[in-house]
Design a protein that fits this description.
The chain is an alpha/beta fold. The protein has helices at about 5-15, 40-50, 75-80, 100-105, 140-155, 160-185, 205-210, 230-240, 255-265, 295-310; strands at about 35-40, 55-60, 85-90, 110, 195-200, 215-220, 245-250, 275-280. About 45% of the residues are buried.
């Protein structure tokens, strides 16, 4: 039996044996904690902070995993079946899991955290008008996601509203300080040097929030390959504007960036592109590493950018 068939059978089991409460109804937990499944490491970290003391959080994807191209496994179906609540990003970030979320929602609580944002909060890719799912790169938007997640936890576990409100207050202070830190570090970079070249267009929200011009070799979805015209256009832009640093991403292959270097050297043999360091984009760093939390990841990224752009 191949993996696809097993997953389809798992979906069928999910419909017949899943949690008996439909979305919008409270859970009957007794004294046990809520079993929460999050798709990405960023969402798992958010739930860990929002539900401290009340939730057990499991992430389907680990460090270095690209959610755009992630293929659900048999074990994912089992974990979804066992969960009380599922939180995912939405805006098509986890595009290959859409059917699983739809089927799961018929028997249990399934929430897209992007539903906590206003339509005007959602950035769209300039050329294609495609909604951008990388909402976590604007810390102020992540605060809205915290408020959404906290409200949903209270909705399904109202007896513990005090715990959730305390957790939200504590983490809100952390995120407000983090936003100030990113803004202060960004302001150390002269405006004309705030140009961020990355492997794919994941940092648009970051650019809008902290006044950076952001260009990616690929678009917002890593599934679509960058073509030679896009690489050539970006190389021309970098040579013309003397932008010498590009940034690799922990969850995206580096082949396109190597091609970018080659094209730039053909345009101007004296122009040398170099890596400004590794940024974490679609996943946090390894567990227990400095970038293994959302706060640590955001600080790592802005510190790396500052070091590269203001040597």
């Amino acid at each position: 039996m191949n993996t696809l068939c097993k997953i389809l059978i798992g979906i069928s089991l999910l419909l017949t044996t899943g949690c008996k409460q439909a979305t919008g109804k409270k859970l009957y937990l007794g004294n046990r904690q809520i079993k929460v499944v999050a798709t990405t490491t960023m969402i798992a970290d958010l739930l860990t902070n929002a539900g401290k003391g009340r939730v057990l959080v499991e992430s389907l994807m680990g460090p270095g995993i690209d959610p755009h191209s992630y293929e659900p496994r048999e074990s994912d179906v089992s974990r979804l079946m066992d969960a009380d609540v599922v939180f995912y990003n939405g805006i098509h970030l986890e595009g290959k899991m859409a059917d699983l979320f739809e089927e799961s929602s018929k028997k249990k609580h399934v929430f897209a955290i992007a539903d906590g944002l206003l339509p005007t909060d959602i950035r769209k890719e300039t050329q294609t008008n495609t909604p951008d799912p990388h909402i976590w790169f604007d810390v102020q938007l992540w605060i809205k996601c915290l408020e959404f997640v906290s409200a949903k936890l209270i909705e399904i576990d109202p007896e513990n509203i005090g715990i959730y409100n305390t957790n939200k207050t504590n983490y809100l202070a952390t995120l407000n300080d983090l936003h100030k830190y990113v803004r202060q570090q960004s302001e150390k970079i002269p405006k004309e040097q705030r140009v961020l070249i990355t492997a794919h267009d994941a940092f648009g929200y970051f650019g809008n929030a902290y006044a950076f011009q952001v260009r990616g070799v690929q678009g917002i979805n890593t599934v679509a390959e960058a073509n030679s015209g896009e690489i050539g256009s970006l190389a021309t832009f970098m040579v013309k504007n003397k932008v010498r640093a590009f940034f690799v991403e922990s969850s995206v292959p580096r082949k396109n960036l190597e091609k970018l270097k080659e094209v730039a050297s053909l345009l101007d043999p004296n122009f040398v592109l170099s890596s400004g360091g590794e940024l974490f984009s679609d996943a946090l760093g390894p567990k227990n590493s400095p970038a293994g939390t959302y706060e640590g990841m955001v600080k790592h990224n802005i510190d790396t950018i500052l070091k590269a752009l203001v040597p």
